[in-house]
């Protein structure tokens, strides 16, 4: 059971680190001008590209078919969300405000709200999966212990 708990502990620490990074970036971004924000956005987009490459490799060469399918599901979500933001949502917002840039800003804000909601729900799913894994591992350990007695 310790191995299972150790793996989950490491992943939770990674999540906490990413959350801290997100908070600090938001705070830093509030003090920047548009050119500086564009540089930060490019850095984040590069990080996303790197992560996408890893997901693509996991989807293509995953050791377990179900794990590969999970990676593919993430890729599919990213592609659909990108299309919704850059095509559909921008089209829907066109002409709703005084300028095109205000339309784009409102579309991006709406997308960000949904992305935050999605991330929050993903954390809940991750917590539920971690708890289920721990519960099952405890039950497996109890069965092994009972069989030895």
Order of helices and strands: HHHH
Residue runs with pLDDT of under 50 for 5 or more positions: none
What's the number of extended β-strand segments? 0
**Mean pLDDT across every amino acid position:** 90
Q: Outline, from the CA principal axes?
A: elongated
Measured distance between first and last alpha carbons: 19 Å
Q: Calculate Rg over CA atoms.
A: 21 Å
Major pleated sheet: none
> In what range is the share of β-strand residues?
under 5%
Q: Give the count of helical stretches.
A: 4
- Name the structural class: mainly alpha
Helix content: over 70%
Outline the structure in words.
This protein is mainly α. Helix content is 90%, strand content 0%. The chain has 4 helices and no strands. It has helices at residues 2-29, 34-61, 65-93, 100-148. Helix 3 packs antiparallel against helix 4 (100-148). The two termini are 19 Å apart. The mean pLDDT is 90.
Topology overview:
Blueprint: H1 2-29, H2 34-61, H3 65-93, H4 100-148
Question: Key features?
Answer:
4 helices, 149 residues, single chain, 90% helix, mainly alpha
């Amino acid at each position: 059971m310790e191995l299972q708990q150790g793996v989950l502990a490491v992943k939770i620490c990674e999540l906490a680190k990413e959350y801290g990074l997100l908070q600090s970036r938001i705070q830093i971004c509030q003090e920047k001008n548009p050119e500086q924000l564009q540089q930060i956005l490019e850095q984040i987009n590069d990080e996303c590209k790197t992560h996408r490459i890893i997901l693509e490799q996991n989807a293509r060469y995953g050791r377990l078919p179900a794990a590969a399918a999970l990676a593919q599901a993430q890729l599919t979500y990213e592609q659909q969300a990108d299309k919704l933001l850059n095509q559909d949502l921008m089209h829907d917002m066109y002409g709703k405000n005084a300028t095109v840039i205000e339309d784009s800003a409102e579309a991006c804000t709406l997308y960000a709200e949904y992305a935050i909601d999605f991330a929050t729900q993903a954390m809940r799913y991750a917590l539920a999966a971690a708890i289920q894994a721990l519960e099952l591992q405890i039950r497996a350990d109890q069965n092994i212990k009972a069989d030895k007695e």
